[in-house]
Amino acid sequence: MGDLFWNKVFGALLAVALGVMGLRVLSETVFSGGHGGGDHHGEEEMSLNDWAHSRFAYYTDIADTGGGSSEPEEVYDLGALLASADATSGERAFKSKCSTCHTIEQGGSNGTGPNLYGIIGSTHAHRSDFGYSSAMAATAGEPWNYENIDHWLTNPGSYIRGTSMAFAGLRRDDERADVIAYLASNSPDAPAFPEPLPEDAGDEAAEGETEGEATDASADATEGDAVEATVTEETVTETPTEATGQIETVDTIDDTAQPEGNEGEVELAPADAEDETATETETEDE
User: If you write DSSP's letter for every residue of 176-234 in order, what string do you get?
Assistant: First the structure.
C-alpha cells in the first residue's frame, strides 16, 4: 500500500467528520429557529411577546393582564408590630448586630456610635460628648419617636442622606420591632407605643366613598323628582276649562262650487245646559 492509499483513507475519514458536523449544525439551525442551538440553559427568561418576536415574522402583541385580580395593598401597622414585639428577642438582636458600635447601659461610654441609653424620646444628635456626622448634626432637634427610629433602623442611609453610619439596616419588620421595644425598655422617657390601626379603617374609607356616591345619586334623583313634580303641576294647571255653552262653527266649505253656508254647528255646553235643552224640546212637543 502506497502513500496514495492512505491519503484516500484520511480524506474519506475527514469527509465523514465534516458531514457529521454539517448535519449537526443544520439540525440545530432547523429545530432552534436559527438562533444558535437548542441549549438555552443560563439564558434570561423572556416574555411571551419576545419569544413570539424571535420566531415569527408577523404576530400580535399579547396584553399583560398581571395574572388576574390584584391583591389588596397591605397597610404597614407599626402599632400592631410593637404591640406584639418581644424586648428579650430585641436584646439578642441588639447584641448580635448593634453592640459592636453602640452601648446601651446607663452611663455607658460611646463607641463608634453614641451610647443609646434613653434614645427613645430624645432628639437627633442629643449627646454633646459624641462627634456626629454633619448630616446627622444638620437634623439636630428632630425627635426620635417610634416612627423615626423605625425608618432609621430600616435603612439609615435612606433616612438621613450622607450619614456616616455604615449599617445596612434591619429589613425584617418583626426583628426591627423587637429592637425598638428593647430600646424603649432602656429609655426612661419613652412614650407609650402607638395604637394599632383599627381593623375597619379600610372598610370605613370604602363606606365613606359609598356614602358619597349615594349622596350624589340622591341629589340627582331629587333634582329629577323636582323636575317631574314641576311638570306635573304645570300639566294640572293647564287642564282645559269647562265648556261655557258657546257654539263653535266648523267651516266645511272646500274649493268646489258649493253653496255658501254649509256649516256644521257644534255646541260645547255643560251637562246642565244639555238637560235644560232636552226639557224645552219635550215641552214644545207637548
Answer: HHHHHHHHHHT-TTPPPPPPPPPTTHHHHHHHHHHHHHHHHHHHHHHHHHHHHHHHHHH
**CATH assignment of 78-185, among 1.50.10.20, 2.60.120.260, 3.40.50.1000, 1.10.760.10:** 1.10.760.10
According to the 3-state scheme, what is the secondary structure of 17-79?
A: HHHHHHHHHHHHHHHCCCCCCCCCCCCCCCCHHHHHHHHCCCCCCCCCCCCCCCCCCCCCCHH
Residue type, 29: T
Label residue 85 exposed, middle or buried (CB < 10 Å: 0-12, 13-18, 19+). Answer: buried
- C-alpha to C-alpha distance for 71 and 62, rounded to whole angstroms: 22
pLDDT in tens, 248-273: 544 544 544 544 544 444 444 555 55
Residue 58 near residue 151 (C-beta atoms within 8 A): no
Q: Which residues contact 83 (CB under 8 A, 6 or more apart)?
A: 193, 196
Residues 156 and 243: their CA atoms lie apart, in Å, by 94
Rounded CA-CA distance 167/116 in Å is 16
Check: CB of residue 196 under 8 Å from CB of residue 80: yes
pLDDT at residue 233 above 70? Answer: no
Quick one: pLDDT band at residue 138, thresholds 50, 70, 90?
very high
The full set of domain ranges for the chain reads 78-185
Predicted TM-score (pTM) of the model is: 0.48
**Distance in angstroms (rounded) separating the CA atoms of residues 147 and 159:** 11
* DSSP state string for 87-110: HHHHHHHHHHHTTTT---STTPPP
